[in-house]
Amino acid sequence: MNMAEKQLLSFQVDEQFDLFLLLKGADVKTAKNGKQFIRMTFEDPSGELSGNFWDATDQDIATFEPGKVVLVRGKKELYQGNSQLKIMNLRLANTSEPNDPSQYVAHGPMTRAEMEESVSNIIFEITEPTWNRVVRTLLQRHADDFYNFPAAKKNHHAFAGGLAYHTISIVRLAKTVADLHPNIDRSLLYSGALLHDLGKTIELSGPISTTYTLAGNLIGHIVLIDEEIVNVCQELHFDPESEEMLLLRHMILAHHGLLEYGSPVRPHLLEAEVLHDLDELDASIQMMSTAVEHTEPGDFSERIFGLDGRNFYRPTASKTNQSEDD
Amino acid sequence: MNMAEKQLLSFQVDEQFDLFLLLKGADVKTAKNGKQFIRMTFEDPSGELSGNFWDATDQDIATFEPGKVVLVRGKKELYQGNSQLKIMNLRLANTSEPNDPSQYVAHGPMTRAEMEESVSNIIFEITEPTWNRVVRTLLQRHADDFYNFPAAKKNHHAFAGGLAYHTISIVRLAKTVADLHPNIDRSLLYSGALLHDLGKTIELSGPISTTYTLAGNLIGHIVLIDEEIVNVCQELHFDPESEEMLLLRHMILAHHGLLEYGSPVRPHLLEAEVLHDLDELDASIQMMSTAVEHTEPGDFSERIFGLDGRNFYRPTASKTNQSEDD
Amino acid sequence: MNMAEKQLLSFQVDEQFDLFLLLKGADVKTAKNGKQFIRMTFEDPSGELSGNFWDATDQDIATFEPGKVVLVRGKKELYQGNSQLKIMNLRLANTSEPNDPSQYVAHGPMTRAEMEESVSNIIFEITEPTWNRVVRTLLQRHADDFYNFPAAKKNHHAFAGGLAYHTISIVRLAKTVADLHPNIDRSLLYSGALLHDLGKTIELSGPISTTYTLAGNLIGHIVLIDEEIVNVCQELHFDPESEEMLLLRHMILAHHGLLEYGSPVRPHLLEAEVLHDLDELDASIQMMSTAVEHTEPGDFSERIFGLDGRNFYRPTASKTNQSEDD
Amino acid sequence: MNMAEKQLLSFQVDEQFDLFLLLKGADVKTAKNGKQFIRMTFEDPSGELSGNFWDATDQDIATFEPGKVVLVRGKKELYQGNSQLKIMNLRLANTSEPNDPSQYVAHGPMTRAEMEESVSNIIFEITEPTWNRVVRTLLQRHADDFYNFPAAKKNHHAFAGGLAYHTISIVRLAKTVADLHPNIDRSLLYSGALLHDLGKTIELSGPISTTYTLAGNLIGHIVLIDEEIVNVCQELHFDPESEEMLLLRHMILAHHGLLEYGSPVRPHLLEAEVLHDLDELDASIQMMSTAVEHTEPGDFSERIFGLDGRNFYRPTASKTNQSEDD
Amino acid sequence: MNMAEKQLLSFQVDEQFDLFLLLKGADVKTAKNGKQFIRMTFEDPSGELSGNFWDATDQDIATFEPGKVVLVRGKKELYQGNSQLKIMNLRLANTSEPNDPSQYVAHGPMTRAEMEESVSNIIFEITEPTWNRVVRTLLQRHADDFYNFPAAKKNHHAFAGGLAYHTISIVRLAKTVADLHPNIDRSLLYSGALLHDLGKTIELSGPISTTYTLAGNLIGHIVLIDEEIVNVCQELHFDPESEEMLLLRHMILAHHGLLEYGSPVRPHLLEAEVLHDLDELDASIQMMSTAVEHTEPGDFSERIFGLDGRNFYRPTASKTNQSEDD
Amino acid sequence: MNMAEKQLLSFQVDEQFDLFLLLKGADVKTAKNGKQFIRMTFEDPSGELSGNFWDATDQDIATFEPGKVVLVRGKKELYQGNSQLKIMNLRLANTSEPNDPSQYVAHGPMTRAEMEESVSNIIFEITEPTWNRVVRTLLQRHADDFYNFPAAKKNHHAFAGGLAYHTISIVRLAKTVADLHPNIDRSLLYSGALLHDLGKTIELSGPISTTYTLAGNLIGHIVLIDEEIVNVCQELHFDPESEEMLLLRHMILAHHGLLEYGSPVRPHLLEAEVLHDLDELDASIQMMSTAVEHTEPGDFSERIFGLDGRNFYRPTASKTNQSEDD
What we know:
6 copies of one chain form a homohexamer.
Chain A lengths: L15 E15 L5 E9 L2 E7 L4 H6 L5 E11 L2 E11 L19 H13 L4 H13 L1 H6 L13 H19 L5 H10 L4 H4 L10 H5 L2 H16 L6 H11 L16 H24 L25 H7 L1
Antiparallel strand pairs in A: 1-2, 1-4, 2-3, 4-5
Helix pairs in contact in A: 2-5, 3-6, 5-6, 5-11, 6-10, 6-11, 9-10
Organism (chains A, B, C, D, E, F): Furfurilactobacillus rossiae DSM 15814
Protein name (chains A, B, C, D, E, F): HD domain-containing protein
Keywords (chains A, B, C, D, E, F): Exonuclease, Hydrolase, Nuclease
């Protein structure tokens, strides 16, 4: 068995493997028989897979902490049409073995350098000067987190760099929308898109074993970044009550679309409604794509919490590929 | 006063005019004082404007029927920040005057020829052969209506050709989405987009004084076009229970997204969810754009029924234009 | 122990038995300790009872498939006031033993012959000729399934022939309603009642181990039968846009009453509202009756999912019987 | 014009008449021009029709009080597909003219004597002795009101005797249901049906110009009759905490089905759920029938508040009559 | 008629008067007959009363602007059990007449000096030093507005100084609650109470003819004051991410209780839930008291929008007074 | 180990103890591995703590019945931030050991004598004579239960005497409210407060192992006490339809505030709305306080069902204590 040749998501069902993997998550749970088990999530650059480590001792719990590289003997198995990892053997990687966690993190389709260039180009198109400076200042201040954080704790774009990638995807859609509808203010839409989720760098603890911070729980990412905009205004001597700044803050505050989803105000600007719609669209596609990828052709995926518990069908023949081939 | 020089929406508030206009709608209402008035909507290629014709006699009601060209003396006035037409004098155009209704209908930004070419190009990209034939057959059968009907009775794309224009706009957005997400089946998404609202040609009475037909009221456009797909299958000897046909029908049936909005089934295909999202996005933008256009800078628009009664702010300085100029 | 004497639901709590039973359902589940168990449902003509088969091996799972006749040693026990089957021993019936599944299926109170005669009489009362032919054609085409399918996967009338029996019960109620209200169109109400759930023969897989078909999941039984009506119109050269056919299709499409329950249009005909109400009434009574039957006098039944999770009280003394005896 | 020959609802649209009618309702409203008008409802045994009396003086308001017989010159006119009365002239009937209000009240299809006999027969079938005595006592105590009150202020069965007629209709349906489902306790279902709305005799002011009493507003008819049941128990020395009395009170308390509709507890008895369903069914049919009767064939009725604002279609050809003739 | 002797709310129904009053509100509306009228609200220290000025000319609209003192001849009349002002004559007060608007504004039961002392005492009880300084700084900065603004545009405490009075009332209730529950952090609860609605000084335009500012419409008072807290932290060199500041900001952000009511986060602190409950309680009582005061004994008040459209009964005998007398 | 020295809630995490405790609750559950366990709740005057007794035999289930005194060897452990009891050994107390259950029941902060005096003082302030007599009669009739029952099965004030303590707390808040708002009828508010939950003495089975009675399930505590008021009227020869009695009954019937929460009518009296608000406020505080007490500083409590599943943060430093000390 040549370990280097295949990655986690390339194995077939029931094909056994020994792999070094990052232990991304490890939730201790108590079974109804009183014994503990650990719900583990493993990751390598090909993606992630979860499985249960049964009858865990206190020693196991202390040993298998998220963020460690582990050597796993196991196989992919199907559970109600969806794939999970059956753990057959597990130990920590020792110092003579590959054990650098950063080598096992799944990334999005773009490198950080590519994303930075893309963001730089977008900022160039923000021609309104005060928005341009506010956006530039805040992205600079949070740059490392912006390019490393996931876009959400688990629902969508839950990979390293997912926050920046999700942001760039929205701007790409926004360009097409603005091309079709010249009455849209591109500067405002792009500024809002770049900042809309930046508060997640304060709301979330980081890219590994992501949890909510106290600020995240008590304030929430929407208001956290809005407050920073106002602070930047103070630093740059911009009037926070100017129409420009009210418009920009409204873009961020309204981007969840509905009060029920945590926006303190609903969108009352064309651009704010568009930002909300594109944010939802991109998140939905990412959630559905991930779910369908983990599903066998001809089956329904597991139910997606973030899409009202719906499951999605994976057709038996991939029409796309056919048409691509033609 | 040179009538030919300016069109309906080009006049300033309180600037009086004499214009030949199409009487697009004429709803007779009874005021609480027992007298009748007519809520009239006037149209020319620049757009439409509504106003009340007070103290209407039975003779007036019989004379001023929708679809007639009329000569209006009036002016634009503001009512709670929104513009309406104050009718000062009104009579039918006589036979020696311009009186061809088709010259006064507002159209979308594309001509029929342009739209036909655009649709033809889209169909070319549907590489799955059975979907291609079903789409081609149904669009051919309803071609005249498809290129002349509005997309809705009044909420959005309520202009001649709005149905086809709305359809094409969705496909344009769909292309960008598919470029960003190669796992999307373009053939399926485009087929669904082209057919999704075609049932409106049966649900609605036509482009002028649009009402619902009995079939529209009792069946609804979603099921009406779904039934036609099944009938076309019978004609073309395609199995309606094949996976391909189930997928296509699901695209149409699910495109309202929620059961509460009249879809008998929620989207359970990635492409169906995307179609629903793009449909809403395009309709929302069109509704907001129309409302904001009728609003003075620095004011809020009237409340939009189709967007939960929200009103939208028109910023004082058009940022878009600035950035366009740069 | 004489096996022939008593049937499944006739035993007292804690009274041990050996019985040949049909294994109606067998859902494999994983307990939180990682071991598998099978949630089994057993059936004989007296009704059905469920119980868990613990610590199931892969061999057990392969052996105990739904549709097989098994020999069960067990007893009825109470779990939170409701009865379940404690499995003490279990094996497949061998070839020398009774093993014909059809002998163990629970049926409704009418035989197929009785139901066929009843349906035939109802059709006779449909005096509108086009409805009569559409109904006759469709019932003939799906006759075997119509008289063998359950009315639902599990909620109500989940016995063989339940679909036809549920349909006939609705018509009986409909007659009383029409007697009380002569303005009701009997032909329309009976036609709608006969066809309203016929789409379930396409939506569901069959009477044993019932699941949803792909057509059921992506289209749903309401639209599936509506499409067939339109196809039959094509065959019989009836105009599907005639008022008669629109009325009939509306009866079917609206019978779930609310958009949230999957009807693409709400009832806008007196007869459609009545059909919806009677459908709900009959399903509710069947669900409540089954739940109360499985409950001891003086206890509350288990909660019924299809009735908002309510439980129902079984009075200590059966008043009905007293009054019947008098 | 021979007044005696035709009644209110027999006239064609635009056919002028002079009729003595009961002024059933007279709501004074202020038009937006500051002038008052009276929304009048006229009634004779054929039914009722409403119309506006414009520009009413204080004198008019004092004169035209509900309960008076008036001489009306007017005609039936259509307003948005529904009929209303255009008032051309109006004065009080004088002492030498027919002016007995009781001659002009619309009644249901049964006389009081018929209803009394029917109720008497139902009570005979209540074989549980304590329920029988409670029902008998309460119906006797409220007999005059029970046979004269409407079933609701305006939504349904809003005619004299409507309360008793609605009650009897429910019992007729209940009999069919009990015939189909022998596990239903007839005594309980009939007892609940007979008492369920009896509290309306306390909640409402009476059959003419019906308003809510203070007890109706602050307590509501459901609790008002429940309290009387408990009081009757005290008088008859029945234990109100006996299971029999708890069951009976539950029937009444739960009959609105949902907490949102004012029942303090949801149905937790099979018979209570059935009573609720039949109550809704009978009320719905009565509302729809009245609305459709006031609608021209081929039109939709006005929207019915009590049925979620839905309107109902009246088919062009009355199928019922055809089939009746056959 | 001696003007000085009686104030607006002291007159009986139908008792005519000539009074100088402040024109507090003047909304121009168009009646359905096309004519304009002005919905006017008049005020003096005894309270306010509304009435319609019919058939208003453009001249009238220009003249009667909110904020002017006017001389009114009129009388109080009842409209559906509630009192309104019938305007018989109206003109502006001239320069030789009393025309100082500030003399006609209704105030709450406390003077500004009393309120300032009360607030000062509350601040003294905030023993946590950083909260004390933030509260002190912000109240000082907005002092004039805090003691002059109403608490809401119209629903409750809509009098000058209502904002401060509402705030003080909440703290009084808070003291009793904290006395009963010693685990409550008084410093936190009082700090939150003092700041919770301070953002209304930015959200609203001022005490007369109150409208929403652009900041109010696009950001909302909850976030507006939260942003100021963060800015004050910057000035005072407090860490805005310290637990103390997160707790304080959470108190403000969560005080509407539900996301649907505009809080971006629900209360997750005992003190935040209590603040929300007391805020609602005090606002409800103020709304109900005002409505009941305008109602005759034995009648129901008009429906209160802010309390789900409920109306409230005013008992015939004021029990309170009796018991007070005893 | 000296048992007498410390009580249940005084032990630190992981500090082992042997204690006599009351077994307050014992719910038998089946683990997914088919074995039974008992979810036990232990109580002494310091409060209560729950823990699981794994692998329970039928003998264990028969032995460990709620209401028994047991000797427990165990320790407090943390489970997801909340404390629970780990059971290491368990047996019934024998006859020579302390085994009087009443010595182990947790009580509220007031003794019965204190509560009786407090209630007596409140009744003294009810100056309306008929309310005074009704309240006095009903409290006397249910006195033992009123001072011994909990206020709810488990959500709040679930300790012996909780019902009376909750009632008294509401009246204390009511006094402050009435002091601030002199238009409130104190007699009515106090009468309603004293009776509002008295029906729980009929709805619930008693203070130990509390369940719902059949009357509780089928009628509910709101209507149960309302019926008793009407019966007391009969005994005292008060007219139940007098305004006074309607007001009092309305106070009780409306006190859940919303129909969805089981009130058959919403509050339509100022005092009824205040009673509802104070009832909710007091219950919320009690629930939050209990949850926070069981939480470590710096953690979030477990989610509270009765507060929409929210969890509450316990700050790291108890601000209250600091300010109390100053």
